[in-house]
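Below sits our specimen:

——
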Amino acid sequence: MIEFKNVSKIFSKGIKAVNNVNFTINEGEIFGFLGPNGAGKSTSLKMLVGILEQTEGTITVNGLDTLKNLMEVKKIISYVPDNPDIYTKMTGIKYLNFICDIYGVDKNLRTKRIEEYNKELELGDAIYNTIESYSHGMRQKLVLIGALIIDPEVLILDEPMVGLDVKTSFNLKNILRKFADSGKTVIFSTHIMEVAEKICDKVGIINKGKIAYCGNLQDLKEQNEANEDLEKIFLELTDNE
């Protein structure tokens, strides 16, 4: 479970990037974090994983306070940032083994998982090439494999579909569904409304640092008299004042 309680982030010059945010994500849920550019999505996720510290409020992951128990939190989460900057002089397979070494994944188990996720995300034999030869999409596939092979309790993805081809995006959506159905928690930010509509159990829409809506999609649509699709509702909720 992930909980944000009265969380704010104030940068220099008093800029409040995140303003008193509250939401809860339960085990077994896929949570879509939606919002315009600069709305506070990435800042919120970076606070969740410990890259940034919140100015106010508390964030807990499975009951662990991210400020007081950061190393314990890091042991149970995987995070894929919006820009896959990784060690380009390594081969893909060495990078994945490096990740497994950090998390103590058994060698036989890691081999099985690497083969499984490489097949589903279709990096193929490129896994043995140096990362500097990879396209953006290939790097995205690699960091996704790296996030999945440690079998975390919580999977946190910032714009995971960017750079992926149609088939890989489809396969990733199936992976996330299976992951959540096993009782794990998934939170990801996206600009793709269709993805959110198809796989999310709950969505949070953030605008100008504040939560405009948090709940399941059906309730959101029922609250809208015109019963419009998510894209139109999103635009209405995030329209500049």
User: Anything to note?
Assistant: The chain has nine helices and ten strands.
